[in-house]
Amino acid sequence: MTEALTGRLAAIVGASQVSTDPDVLGGRSVDYTGRYRGRAAVLVRPGSAEEVAAVLTACRDAGVSVTVQGGRTSLVAGTVPEHDDVLLSTERLRGIDEVDTVERRVHVGAGVTLAEVQRAATAAGLVFGVDLAARDSATVGGMASTNAGGLRTVCYGNMGEQVLGLDVVLPDGSVVHRHSQVRSDNTGYDLASLFVGAEGTLGVITGLDLRLHPTPRQRVTAICGYADLEALIATARVFRDMDGIAALELIDARASALTAEHAGVAAPVEGAWQLLIELAGETDLTDRLAEALSEADLCGEPAVGIDGAAQQRLWQVREAVADVLGVYGPPLKFDVSLPLSSINGFAAESAGLIADHAPDAIPVLFGHVGEGNLHLNIVRCTLSGDREHALYTAMMALIARHDGNVSSEHGVGTRKRDYVSMSRTDADIAAMRAVKAAFDPTGYLNPAVLFG
């Protein structure tokens, strides 16, 4: 069956865009961290929405599961196949239309990287509202599928708030083009929103209309040090709803110690916890920053960057974290959303939990504190099998006890599908399953993700 299907796929996309090479499939069947591996039978790289539709039809007719892959930067093993799948890569869907500077929008292919969208926006004097450390490899189709957030979420919102329209191939092979040139369109179901965050379970996004934003004239960036996490949270409360807030990032001193040692990027302030703050607007916001920090319980003076070079140096402290997390091997990652009031308690209890399960591991906490969206990474974690599963389950339960959500911006993927009931009721899950069944009755599209 695989040989017959491979021939049919080659006829659709061209033989050079289909591979059954074990080395190629092996490299494509491991997650971004290198921690989780799956298995696949064929890789296919369609070059248009029509080719995607034909590929899905062929796979459905053959009764073969399909796992959709973009930049493969998922941190919840969302692109790891489990059923000898066909891997459908969107990497060739790379068109970028001319930026509409009047309406501040652009149409791009799903395989375009975030960095490419950012460059197109910048060249047109605009800015794209989502930014991630993995900007050079993360694709906008995958980002929409997981409703990614990132470094600017406190200002612009998640990926879903940047999506104005979509091209989507449904599991039955039909193609939906949901586009509108008007700013207010309340005609029927909001189908585009249905596919954002669906993690590829309802269809394959092939193109997107993206919202762009005016570029702020002025920026000011600061890193503040704190001895106490609760004091940092108090400052975050002040800034998160402030006009002009552009970024609000928590950095654990254990993270900055790693970046200093392994990337040569040291934190410019003292303290067990650091907070990166950026304000942006049409006027100089330095005085507003100083006034808001005047009552903060800081460890010494903040490091402030007014010009672009100084701001970039401060941002290196935050962005270097992602580069050093794997220095001791694949980290165990948790993407968690918490009320601000729960963060301090969670930080302490999660450190104790990790010490009980993996005494030699290093917990590193950082993330988008304005939304309570944090990334807990367990560095030097050698657990596997049942021992890893026991820690993972205990951590999910801890998140739930602190009124958190088991998934924030990374999605559910395959790692968190067993814990969805901690954040969703039975009726809610049943409704989601009904939507899945309506679009994909045989369940062949991304079968390992979300529901398993």
UniProtKB/TrEMBL annotation:
Residues 36-215 form the FAD-binding PCMH-type domain. Its EC number is 1.-.-.-. InterPro entries: FAD-bd_oxidored_4_C, FAD-bd_PCMH, FAD-bd_PCMH-like_sf, FAD-bd_PCMH_sub1, FAD-bd_PCMH_sub2, FAD-linked_Oxase-like_C, FAD-oxidored/transferase_4, Oxid_FAD_bind_N. The keyword Phosphoprotein does not apply. Signal peptide: none annotated. One of its GO terms (biological process) is respiratory electron transport chain. It is an enzyme of class 1 (oxidoreductase). Keywords: FAD, Flavoprotein, Oxidoreductase. GO terms for molecular function: FAD binding; oxidoreductase activity. The keyword Glycosyltransferase does not apply. Its cofactor is FAD. Belongs to the FAD-binding oxidoreductase/transferase type 4 family. This is Putative FAD-linked oxidoreductase. The lineage of its organism: Bacteria, Bacillati, Actinomycetota, Actinomycetes, Mycobacteriales.
